[in-house]
Automatic annotation (TrEMBL):
Residues 150-160 have a biased composition (Basic residues). InterPro entries: Glutamic_endopeptidase, Neprosin, Neprosin_propep. This is Neprosin PEP catalytic domain-containing protein. Residues 149-172 are annotated as: Disordered. It comes from Buddleja alternifolia.
Length: 423
């Protein structure tokens, strides 16, 4: 009897031991799987960083923690594109829209000569000729993205579609807008002077931006978009600084395009302005107001889309082959603000758009776009006709247009997000 009990006990111990061995085996397998997954992710990140961060001729440390690499113009990320292998860089556009350099009126930009907007890194040096400044991408920047592949890309469905103000459709993507727009013609560019602020962002995965959209195609999978302005995006940049940015896509943000120089596409020719670098100074409530002027236009001779910052910095161009519809012209232009509303705790976000103040509060409190213009088929800048406005929830963010002799066509826009009327 005792012998039987003993062998029974031994069998139980063996079984327990067997289960333990299996358990630890499975654990170590899953650990090994996790380890190899994380080491393959590390490898992916390193490869991506190597692709983005080209060997610099000179490096400048910016006071905000950015590292600006001065990279030879012919080694920039654009030339990783297979179609650009033998591309001859166009140093200047063939034509500028009339009136860009010869505006008769003494514009505010000229008066602002006393407090020009610069980028923070300029305090510590500048890039030599034949190089372009590129903000270095750090490992932690890429790791904040949902995947290495999605780093530097916008989420789908983030363009405001004014004609279909269906609340279900507009809130589905979590993006909210307050914009002015024109459509129904062929457009060859757009210009605006944009008031610069530093809006507060509630969640790191949200952003707030103010920009121009140059759009072609339908709002389906084939949308072409060129975008430029300023943004605060903790996810993309790791801080809450206001930064100059550009974006492009030729397939509604699916596979093509990116912010700034984070993929091949945009060809930069300017050695003084860095895409994605902090803008300084910014406007303050009831205090000095600062604005930046941005012009995007299609060179009628070469067909490339050029971007100019301020009155003298021609930054570079998007080659026309990147696009389908925009290879010809744009069918819609939008100006205004956009935020991500991720509805933290089931409530509307308190991420601010613009200055965080509503349009009716006016100059010094609310953010504005002024001197908004479009470029016509003769390459002339002209006032927009039949300017429409659009916002998904005017109690959260709103827009109000106007026009006068000094500011041409303008609008105030933005708001605080969550408030007693916006839950």
């Amino acid at each position: 009897m005792e012998a039987a009990q003993f062998s029974d006990g031994r069998r139980k111990v063996k079984m327990v031991f067997f289960f333990l061995v299996c358990f630890w085996g499975l654990m170590s397998l899953s650990c090994a799987g996790r380890l190899s997954a994380s080491s393959s992710q590390k490898l992916q990140v390193q490869k991506h960083l190597k692709r983005l961060n080209k060997p610099p001729i000179k490096t400048i440390q910016s006071p905000d923690g950015d590292i600006i690499d001065c990279v030879h113009i012919s080694h920039q990320p654009a030339f990783d594109h297979p179609f650009l292998k033998d591309h001859k860089i166009q140093a200047r556009p063939s034509y500028n829209p009339e009136g860009v350099f010869g505006e008769n009126k003494m514009s505010m930009e000229q008066k602002e000569g006393t407090n020009p907007i610069t980028q923070l890194w300029h305090m510590n040096g500048k890039c030599p000729e034949d190089t372009i400044p590129i903000r270095r991408t750090k490992k932690e920047d890429v790791l904040r993205a949902s995947s290495v592949k999605r780093y530097g890309k916008k989420k789908h469905r983030s363009v405001p579609k004014p004609r279909s103000a269906d609340p279900d459709l507009t809130n589905e993507s979590g993006h909210q807008h307050a914009i002015a727009y024109v459509e129904g013609d062929k457009y060859y560019g757009a210009k605006a002077t944009i008031n610069v602020w530093e809006p507060k962002i509630q969640q790191p995965n949200e952003f707030s931006l103010s920009q121009i959209w140059v759009l072609g195609g339908s709002f389906g999978e084939d949308l072409n978009s060129i975008e430029a302005g300023w943004q605060v995006s903790p996810d993309l940049y790791g801080d809450n600084n206001t930064r100059l940015f550009t974006y492009w896509t030729s397939d509604a943000y699916q596979a093509t395009g990116c912010y700034n120089l984070l993929c091949s596409g945009f060809i930069q020719v300017n050695s003084e302005i860095a895409m994605g670098a902090s803008i300084s100074p910014v406007s303050a409530l009831r205090n000095s107001q600062y604005d930046i002027s941005i012009l995007v236009w299609k060179d009628p001779k070469e067909g490339h889309w050029w971007m100019q910052f301020g009155s003298g910095y021609v930054l570079g161009y998007w080659p026309s082959f990147l696009f389908s519809y925009l290879a010809e012209s744009a069918s819609m232009i939008e100006w205004g603000g956009e935020v991500v509303n991720s509805e933290p705790n089931g409530q509307h976000t308190s991420t601010q758009m613009g200055s965080g103040h509503f349009p009716e509060e006016g100059f010094g409190k609310s953010s504005y776009f002024r001197n908004i213009q479009v470029v016509d088929s003769s390459n002339n800048l002209k006032a927009p006709k039949d300017l429409g406005t659009f916002t998904e929830q005017s109690n959260c963010y709103d827009v109000q247009t106007g026009s006068n002799g000094d500011w041409g066509h303008y609008f105030y826009y933005g708001g605080p997000g969550r408030n007693p009327n916006c839950q």
